[in-house]
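Progress narrative, work stream C.
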Amino acid sequence: MNDSSKKIRLARTWTMGKLINRGGFASVYEASLEDGSIRAVVKLVEKVPGADREILIGSEAQSTRSWPNVVPVIDSGEHEGKLAIVMPRANMSLRDLLIDRSGILATDEALRILLDIATALVGIEESVVHRDLKPENILLLNGYWCIADFGISRYASSSTSPATRKRSLTKEYAAPEQWQMIHATSKTDVYAFGVIAYELLAGSRPFHGPDEESYRDQHCNHHPPVLAQASVRLRDLVEECLDKNAATRPTPASLVSRLQRAQEAPPSPALSALADWNSTALRERRAEITAAQQAELMKRDRAEAFKTAERRFSAIPQELLNTLETWGPAVAVEKGAGHGTQAFTASAYSIPNKNMVKLGVSNPVTADPWSGPFDVVAEAVVSLTLPATHGKQGWRGRNHSLWFCDPVEKGSYGWYEVGFTALFAAQSEFEPFSLPPTESAIAFQNAIGTTQLGWGPGELDRSDLSEFVERWIGWFASGLQEALYRPHVMPESGKVRSFRRT
């Protein structure tokens, strides 16, 4: 559709000109009053939840004048089923300026821009959280750099609702709490301000992605390179804005006062040296705080992963129990033995010698960190135990490790069955045998060690455990018939599976 020269009738009648920009939910056109007295832009917005918030905020900026450096709304209404928002026509965006200057600004000019933005943040702090501050949304209007585009903003007093499009973020400027889906505050805007400040002063953004997951990791877990282009005071301020912990970032009012003093040199060499020491000390303290926060987040993520492992594990012992109850009701079954460490232990006497044979599965426990090539979250053991008098060479049966891990594709977790063998297999009572990850890393290296893989890692499909159940019940039955023996060859033929090396 050609919207050029179309009339839009709101409180006043506007003539819509050429398209300036088009985004996900909106299109922006040149506009002017019929008599040409006011040059403006009209933004046509789809009626998505929360879209009218920009009208309310812009109208507040226009009517009360209490929000300096916020682009006002001078007319609004509906046009052809869309919200129409009329705003003054700006000279350029901050992104336009950065492109025009190839990203390089003099420090004095960068400070003036940052002071304008900080002044706007002071005005809206008690009322609105912008949540999408970036150079594209900062416009030069009447000689001042002003904040615009409050499309995903939220009123400061409101709890987040779906209407705020919470997951809508700009990955280059999004604060850690936005990535973590935590309540956004004015400190969220301060973080984006810090990214913009770094970009203006260094000529590039602090983090470079390039993909969304990389940006998430960088914003949440990494510190940017030191801002060598700025004075100590300015560098400290930008680093504080980029703190991972929102609570320790400066307030908007503090931004204004510190920006006003940022270029003042310390009055003496002694004070200059003290300022340098203070900058280094603060940077080290922030690094320590971030490391502690990362450890806490990792601990929390690990706990959630372990809960997932427990949920997925429950089908494994249950399928074995169901089969035992159906086909071997005379088998004695004890659940929760060992103070709850065992999911179950099934035991029965062999025929004809009446020797005790046991089949058991332990409950999963958290796996300790190891040096292997993939991640292991939880571990358990499935075991078949024969009497000491059985067979030759002192073989007592087989134990296999069950690991909740990602040995095939990084981040793709499941329960896997793993067994190990010693270089001198005849010395082991159990063959294959189980090991915790911390004692088995050598088996996953490209070297011959005293411990080698004897089985797996083979994934256990929760939706079809028939092969696993048939195999272990078969071994149990063979043990009861005194017909189960040590494997002739280790590793057992065709049982060792490939795994990723990094």
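Work stream C, second folded protein:
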Amino acid sequence: IDPSDGNALLDSIQKETNFEGLTGNIRLKDNGDRYAKYDILNTQDNSFEYTKIGSGTEDGLSFDKKVKAVFSDGSTDIPDAAERIYVEWGDVEAMVMVALFSVGLIVTLGCLVVMMVHRS
């Protein structure tokens, strides 16, 4: 292969790349992307250790039926995807956000006035 022929070199690399790396088997698709292969990990029992609960490949996801996923509330029940947590007006976080927004708005309007006054 002529190294100056970029297209031929790329085709050769994509077709011949197939080896075992630190993260597993490495192969490339026709578009140059690596074939996906990953583990789905979950922290459980308030520890810093991860538990493998499944894996994913180009063909889809598969989960280990013997291991349950533990969610942020500590349960194994799948949470409602539409659940939202709203901030109340009396909360400190809400007051800080409103104050920051107000300061940002005042600074922006001040810059606009300065630019309008000093434009050439």
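The beta strands are 18-21, 24-27, 37-43, 50-57, 60-63. No further action is required on this item.
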